[in-house]
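ok so i was messing around last nite and threw this chain in just to see what happens. nothing serious, just curious
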Amino acid sequence: MGLFQQFLKLLQSDEFIIATSATVVGGLLLAFIKTSYKFISNPKETYDPYFLHDRQAIPLVRWLLIWPLSPFRKSFWATIGLLLFLLVAEWRLSAPWFYYLLTGVLLFGNLFREQFTSYSHSIETALQLIKQMLRTTHGQVHEEIKGIASEDDHWFVRCNIMIYDPKDEKLHVKWTHNMDHDRDRNLSLDKWKGVAGTAFLKNRAYFGHIDEPPPHGPDWLLDEEDVSKIHPDLRSIWSFPLRDKDNIPFGVFNIDTDFKAEEDLITEVLLLGQNVANNSAIVLQLLR
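result:
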C-alpha cells in the first residue's frame, strides 16, 4: 500500500479523529494560556481578542500533517503522549526546523515499522511451519511403529531440531515436539558426539541404536555426563543434516524413540526424515 493510500485510510480511522480533535483542543488551550499569561504579565498592552492568530494556527496545521506519518498512531495513549510532547515542544521550540526534523523521524519510523511488521510476520510464519512439520513427522512415525508393534507395546516418538553454534562448537536443541517434560529438551552436544554429531560432521543422514555401545554398535563418543542428559529409555535415533544453499550443514533434524527399530522401519523413517529435513532447512533460512 502506497503512502497516499495509507494517508487516505488514516483519514477515515477513529484514531485520526481522536488525534485531530485532541490537537485542535490542545492548540486552542495553549494559545489561550499564552495570551492569558501575556495579559497577566503586562495588562497595559493591547491584545488581539482573536488569540488564535497565525503563530498558533500554523503549529496546528503542522501537527495535522505530521500525525498521519506517526508509527504510534494506533495507540491511544501513545497518541496523547505524542501530542503532549508536541505541545511542550511548541511552547519551548517554536521553530520550523523542529517540525521538519520530527516529520522526517516519524516518516522513516513508520516505514521501518512497516518493514519490521512484515519481517515479524515472515518469522512467525516460518516458526509455525517448523512446528507443523515436527507434529506431522511425529504422527507419521508413530503410525509406522503402530503398524508393526504388538498391542501390548507402549512407546514414544519425539522430534527436535538442533542448531550449530560455532562459538562453542556445540549443537543446541531449539525446537521440539513431544519433549516438553524430558530432561534432554534443552540438550547441548559437542558437534562430534552422538548420532546427531555424526550426521552433522559427515553431512549425511545416520541411524543409530543408542543402547548398543561398542563393540556391539558404533562408538558415538558419548561420555557418562552426556548419557546422563539423554532420555534414559532412548533406543533408536535418526539424524539428518540441515544444509544451507551451499550444502553446508548448520544444524540437525532428529527423530527418536524407545522402540527397537528394525530394517524396514529404519529405511522408511530415513526416507521420511530426509524430506522433512530438506524442507525444514529451507524454512530455517528465514530464522538465521
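not much to say yet. Confidence is low (pLDDT under 50) at residues 47-57.
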